Amino acid sequence: MTENALQIEGLTAGLGDLPILNGIDLVVPFGDVHALMGPNGSGKSTLVHVLTGHDDYDAEGSALVDGTELIGLSVEERAQAGLFQAFQYPVSLPGISLAALTNEMEDVSDDSDVEERAEAAEEQLQMQPFMDRYVNVGLSGGEKKRSEMYQLAVAAPKVAILDEIDSGLDVDAVKAVAEMVESLRSPKRGVLVITHYSRILRHLTADRVHVMVDGRIVESGGREVAERLEAEGYKQ
């Protein structure tokens, strides 16, 4: 294991002749939870797409998960390297129960601890009422995010990218999701939370807050960065 779960250096990306990421440098050590904030159009979603392997983007530079270079790998290979994404709008899987999905995760993994993690996460996140239901079908926003956190716990990735997991949630649900993220902290994992707003950071202790503007990280700091952005907005 290296010191850093996620290490990005000089990452650029664009769509055709349109540059979007203009040299991203970002490090998330193992055991840390970092927040990435920025206005609409700053490149946050593109960064997620590039890291997770969308092939629409021309990317150059380096993005390492525990020392493994992601750029050039397939989506499946990135997942095998230890990368996990929780979606802003989780996909529904009609016909596939959460229990069946869990069994599939156990079958395809060579990790002998998957079943034990699944049982522990089911109890910790109170997933019993959802295990026999189709994945994310008929669930509230908060319930879908709980399901995502359960899948994260079972998968036990080295890097978890949580893409606007507070989107569309009420105050109580935001607090609940933040507490779930905190409960999944691990010295074997780094977490990057992508968000527009500081409200989730009222309940989630971010070790570092990064600000992205125009495809670059323009500032990094502690909780005070998020508080200032909440009061003043983004200045370009």
Question: Main traits of this protein?
Answer:
236 residues; alpha/beta; Rossmann fold; six-stranded mixed beta sheet; four-stranded antiparallel beta sheet; globular
Please describe what this structure looks like.
The protein is α/β, with parallel strands linked by helices and 236 residues long. It has a domain at 4-91 and 158-232: 3-Layer(aba) Sandwich (Rossmann fold), CATH 3.40.50. The chain contains 7 helices and 12 strands. It has helices spanning 44-52, 75-81, 98-108, 114-124, 141-155, 171-183, 223-232, and strands at 4-15, 18-29, 33-37, 58-65, 68-69, 83-86, 93-97, 134-135, 159-163, 190-195, 208-213, 216-221. The chain has a 6-stranded mixed β-sheet with strand order 6-9-10-3-11-12, with helices on both faces. The protein has a 4-stranded antiparallel β-sheet with strand order 2-1-4-5, with helices on one face. α4 packs antiparallel against α5 (141-155) and α5 (141-155) packs parallel to α6. The longest helix has 15 residues, at 141-155. It is globular. The N and C termini lie far apart (38 Å). The model has no long low-confidence stretch (mean pLDDT 92).
- Please state the CA-atom Rg, rounded to the nearest Å: 17 Å
Q: Order of strands across the biggest sheet?
A: 6-9-10-3-11-12
> Can you tell me the residue ranges where pLDDT is under 50 for at least 5 consecutive residues?
none
| CATH topology term of the domain at 4-91 and 158-232 | Rossmann fold
The CATH C-level class name of the domain at 4-91 and 158-232: Alpha Beta
**Which class do the helix and strand fractions yield?**
alpha/beta
The multimeric state of the shown protein is: single chain
Measure the end-to-end span: 38 Å
In sequence order, what are the helices and strands, one letter per element?
A: EEEHEEHEEHHEHEHEEEH
- Counting DSSP E segments of at least 2 residues, the number of strands comes to 12
Q: Beta fraction of the residues? A: 25-35%
